[in-house]
Amino acid sequence: MTRAKLLVATLVLLFSLPSFAGSDKGKPKLLAVLFYADWCGSCKALDPKIVKARGKADLDNQDVLFVRLDLTDAASRHQSALLADQLGIGSYYRENAGKTGFLLLADPKSGKPLKRILKDQSDAEIASLIKGYLKS
Predict the structure, then answer these.
(1) Count of CB atoms situated within 10 Å of the CB of 35
(2) What is the pTM of this model?
(3) Which residues on adjacent β-strands are paired with residue 67?
(4) Element (H, E) at 29
(5) Considering only CA atoms, which of 122, 105, 125, 127 is closest in space to residue 57?
(6) What pLDDT, in 10s, does the model give residues 4-61?
């Protein structure tokens, strides 16, 4: 599947999910947004740690929504900007002006950034941070 088709499929899925406004049923307690690009060395170091943390800590069965914003090229940046706006983190996305190589933990209700996770953190630290925000 091409990157553009994957982004479109993600947007379709996002729009078909229950709205983040209103009841808390089906709502994530935390957004975990990876700012990623194919050419980014930090992304290539961080991505496997996130995958490992998700598996070891069973985070995919928790109320955290994992999203990847692809900033590899102009088309994927445009789609990612649209997705960021839908997630409520559009202003944060624009403020970072194409920076990649980090995982943003954000409040899904307000879009408020909570923590920026970098490649230097271990999978255990990543899991612990995410679990901590899920408890609060």
Answers:
(1) 25
(2) 0.82
(3) 33
(4) none
(5) 127
(6) 555 444 544 454 444 444 445 678 999 999 999 999 999 999 999 999 999 999 999 9
Structure token pair of residue 42: 């930090």
Count Cβ atoms within 10 A of the Cβ of residue 117 and give its class: 0-12 exposed, 13-18 middle, 19 or more buried: buried
Question: What is the distance of C-alpha 58 from the center of its chain?
Answer: 17
Q: Coil, strand, or helix at residue 41?
A: helix
- What the block records as the tokens of 27 is 């709502």
pLDDT tens digit string along 88-136? 999 999 999 889 999 999 999 999 999 999 999 999 999 999 999 999 8
DSSP alpha helix (H) spans, 57-89: 74-87
CB 50 within 8 A of CB 126: yes
Give me the domains of the chain, ranges plus CATH numbers: 27-135 (3.40.30.10)
3 state SS of 105: strand
Q: CA torsion 106→121→56→15, rounded to 10°?
A: 30
- d(CA 90, CA 82) in angstroms, rounded, equals 8
CA atoms 80, 82, 84, 86: torsion sign: negative
